[in-house]
Amino acid sequence: MYRVFAIVVGGLALAACTSSPSWMNLDALKPQPITDTVRFESEPPGADAKVSNGQTCKTPCSLSLPANATYTVVFSLNGYQPESDSLELVSMGDGTSRLRPNPVLVELTPAPPPAKKPPVKKRSAPRKKTTAAKKPAAPKPGATQAAPAPSAPPPPAAQTQAPASPWPSAPPPAGEPPK
Question: Is the pTM of this model over 0.85?
Answer without folding.
Answer: no
